[in-house]
């Protein structure tokens, strides 16, 4: 008897998220336990604290397995968080350098399909993710004083301060680690 070859990871599109996750800024998240009102000055530290746990997620068998229809695999969530760091760091830069910028749109689902997240090398993703998490942590560490009150907006009109933006970002990183990637 011969062993079956490993299954090709699913790269089909996942249905777009319809929930408005900005509610976690004020209400927290019952799914992952994120609580609003934390000291945003700790965003960098808390982001850095996820690096080893994300690395562990990408060092297990089955990282390309989707737990159910319409849900990304742990590898896909890691790629998403890597790219999320890049997008949020650029948006943070815009908020700090421009008056009330409007952020360019980012279709995370389209990027996941275009970049074939579930076919990427997990060891490369792990290194890239660690680098992006640390760089984004450093960017939030550099924010001080009145900069936390600076504003920016998404294309849909949702307004953020740097402080609320930090909470929105940190929730995304921790939520995907705790709930989705099962880290």
Explain what you see:
The protein is mainly alpha-helical. The chain has a domain at 47-64 and 71-180: Four Helix Bundle (Hemerythrin (Met), subunit A) (Up-down Bundle), CATH 1.20.120. Helices cover 48% and strands 3% of the residues. It is built from seven helices and two strands. The protein has helices at residues 24-27, 43-48, 51-57, 74-97, 108-114, 122-141, 162-180, and strands at residues 151-153, 159-161. A two-stranded antiparallel ribbon has the order 1-2. Strand 1 and strand 2 form a beta hairpin. Helix 3 (51-57) packs antiparallel against helix 6. The longest helix is centred in the middle third of the chain and has 24 residues, at 74-97. The model is unreliable at 1-5 (pLDDT under 50).
Task: Quickly list its features.
globular; 2 strands; 7 helices; 183 residues; Four Helix Bundle (Hemerythrin (Met), subunit A); disordered N terminus; mainly alpha; 48% helix
């Amino acid at each position: 008897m011969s062993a079956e070859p490993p299954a090709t990871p699913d790269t089909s599109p996942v249905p777009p998220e319809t929930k408005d996750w900005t509610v976690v800024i004020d209400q927290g998240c019952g799914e992952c336990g994120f609580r609003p009102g934390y000291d945003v000055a700790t965003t960098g530290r808390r982001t850095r604290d996820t690096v080893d746990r994300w690395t562990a997620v990408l060092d297990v068998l089955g990282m390309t397995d989707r737990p159910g229809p319409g849900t990304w695999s742990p590898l896909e969530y890691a790629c998403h968080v890597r790219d999320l760091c890049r997008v949020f760091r650029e948006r943070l830069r815009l908020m700090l350098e421009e008056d009330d910028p409007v952020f360019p749109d980012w279709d995370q689902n389209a990027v996941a399909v275009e970049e074939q997240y579930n076919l990427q090398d997990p060891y490369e993703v792990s290194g890239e993710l660690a680098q992006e998490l640390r760089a984004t942590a450093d960017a939030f560490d550099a924010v001080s004083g009145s900069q936390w009150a600076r504003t920016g907006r998404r294309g849909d009109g949702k307004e953020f301060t740097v402080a609320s933006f930090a909470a929105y970002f940190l929730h995304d990183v921790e939520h995907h680690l705790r709930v989705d990637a099962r880290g």
